[in-house]
Amino acid sequence: MRTYLVTGGAGFIGSNYIHYMFKKYGDSIRIINVDVLTYAGNLENLKDIADRPNYTFVKADICDKEAIEKIFEENDIDRVVHFAAESHVDRSIKNPEIFVKTNVLGTAVMLNAARKAWEKEDGTYIEDKKFLHVSTDEVYGSLPDDDTAFFYETTPIDPHSPYSASKASSDMLVKAYIDTYHFPANITNCSNNYGPYQFPEKLIPLIINNALQGKKLPVYGDGKNVRDWLYVEDHAKAIDMVQEQGVIGERYNIGGHNEKQNIEIIRIILETLNEMLPDSDPRKAHINEELITYVADRKGHDRRYAIAPDKIKAAVGWTPDTMFREGIKLTIKWYFEHEDWMKNVTSGDYQKYYAEMYK
Ligand code: NAD
Ligand code: TYD
């Protein structure tokens, strides 16, 4: 039975990936999820699978070398899928150090521990061991408004925010392990994800939550910054396909050619909420464009991200299954059905964060 060590599995993409993997492989795999449970980590996301005999949760910090090495010593790990990170650009602008610690040092600890467990005396590796580093398209920097420019795997790394700089550093470290030690790893650089379990500090769940409550919808700058949105399950599928069918040592971009300006995203959410809520729902009275509020721009705000997914398509045959209009409906439906989840994550510290961020 293949054993996976997933880091950051209690976060947004990690928890969707774990659900996807159990749906796909059932009892034929084992997953160990290591997560320190920061504000973004939530075991509620995994309550449906928590009792599976082939699932184990370990509360540990990826920067804790001893704790991570112990997991490798006690388990014969076949796959590492490394999600754990500080992931929010706005938080990185306010407090960059934790991004360097978790994203760079934490990745170094993960790489070292895996190498120690997998490398043989002659410098080769135990057969069929693989490490996948989950990264972002933000490492490539920003594209001009011109919609014919795209990020390729060969695009020079040019990060602007402390978040993207820390992810670019971790990518470089993985590349150094591949080049220096022939370490069996892949790097994936994915565009913006959306879907169930996303923490409402990110654009899409924040807008859904605010609109439902009749709160203002904060738009940074002129609202014309472009992001390339991908339904999170399509990301999970891509990670699995790259890890099983990709060429070791290669980097793959993941994106579904779904570029939209932020203001378009907000309008689609408002429209979809109104379509999906029954006429009798009193919230319908306040869900309209009057909620849209332009606020000060994010410092160093990248203008446009757009992935060219040609390589992943040609190499492993990946294409996304869920188009944006359908994905946003699935996402909104999930948030409708999980009002308690939203209430729980937005109580306490979130209130403080929101008041400070949007003052
Ligand atoms: P998230 O913030 O929702 O989750 C991060 C998880 O990592 C949380 O469960 C948190 O508790 C855990 N974590 C943080 N620090 C840790 C530490 N020191 N030790 C152990 N666990 C720790 O993030 P996400 O949006 O799910 O992103 C996951 C990964 O995917 C990140 O590496 C991110 O850079 C990358 N990524 C995200 C997107 C996106 O749109 N969200 C797009 C491309 C790539
Ligand atoms: P976000 O979801 O934070 O993802 P990222 O910065 O990693 O791309 O933001 C997506 C886009 O939405 C980005 O251009 C910033 C913008 N944005 C707003 O306009 N208002 C908001 O309240 C937030 C959180 C983001």
What does this protein structure show overall?
By secondary structure, the protein is an alpha/beta fold. The protein has a domain at 2-195 and 232-257 and 300-321: Rossmann fold. It is built from twelve helices and 13 strands. The chain has helices at residues 12-25, 65-74, 89-94, 97-118, 162-181, 203-213, 232-245, 262-276, 310-316, 324-337, 339-346, 349-357, and strands at residues 2-7, 29-35, 55-59, 79-82, 130-136, 185-190, 193-194, 217-220, 226-228, 230-231, 251-254, 259-261, 292-295. Strands 3-2-1-4-5-6-11 form a seven-stranded parallel beta sheet, sandwiched between helices. Strands 7-10 form a two-stranded parallel ribbon. Strand 5, helix 5 and strand 6 form a beta-alpha-beta unit. Helix 8 packs across helix 10 (324-337). The chain binds nicotinamide-adenine-dinucleotide and thymidine-5'-diphosphate. Thymidine-5'-diphosphate (TYD) is lined by residues 89, 192, 202-203, 206, 218-220, 225, 227, 262, 298.
How would you summarize what this structure contains?
The protein has 359 residues and is of the alpha/beta class. Helices cover 42% and strands 16% of the residues.
